[in-house]
Amino acid sequence: MKILLVEDDTAIAGALEAFLTQKGCQVTVCPTLSEARELLAAALPDVAVLDWNLPDGAGADLCRELRQRWPRLPLLMLTVRDDTRDILAGFACGADDYVTKPFDREVLYARLLALGRRSRPDEEAGLCCCGIRLDPARQTVTCQGEPMALAPLEYQLLHLLMQNKGRTVTRQQLLDALWDKNGHFVNDNTLTVTMKRLREKLGRPACLKTVRSFGYRLEEPQR
To answer: Which pLDDT tens digit goes with each residue over 164-211?
Structure first.
């Protein structure tokens, strides 16, 4: 699970990042709203955890922005503000859950898992985009109803992008996931070549975006 933690208290952020990393999560810490907005513009997490009081504004304002822009993104407020009015205001601005400090880390982790499960699309919807359908059970790919013959690495690349539809996946993340995890360290150009071949086989779909000097993103077109 990819978690964005917007928290300016370095002690809390450091301890929580270490704990969640041990649980197998990928945690990105942002101490300010501006840094969080910049990161969110590039890639969406699975869950965003927002403090209320931040150096450059209120986490509740960011919560409202994110709910309007990404209605399905799970949002959890993590704050010392435990007054009933504040809790109600947190939910009113779009939070899915509200946890007050101090908190039990195991309970917080369980809440994050629950948010991630509820937001995850079903398998069929999550692996379709612009007429491209990937069936992980059969390991088949069709494009506009026509079967596609993909090489193993091309299939794995498409599968990873499908699983992260709507999020930018960095080049390094793709290299780590598809090559380096097996000890097969390759030149960065290998990814470029594999992506080029995948695009050509799929008919150069507009939904497969290149984020220059950063990575790739698969997304539905805006209507």
So the answer is: 888 888 888 888 877 655 555 566 788 899 999 999 999 999 899 999
**Radius of gyration over every alpha carbon of the chain, rounded to an integer in angstroms:** 19
| CA 7 – CA 111 distance, rounded (Å) | 18
Q: Which helix (H) or strand (E) holds 50?
A: strand 47-50
**Angle at the Cα of 169 (from 164 to 179), degrees rounded to 5?**
100
| Coil vs helix vs strand at 82 | coil
Q: How far apart are CA 42 and CA 171, in angstroms?
A: 13
Residue 142: half-sphere exposure toward Cβ, Cα within 13 Å: 10
DSSP single-letter state for residue 17: H
pLDDT for the residue 124: 43
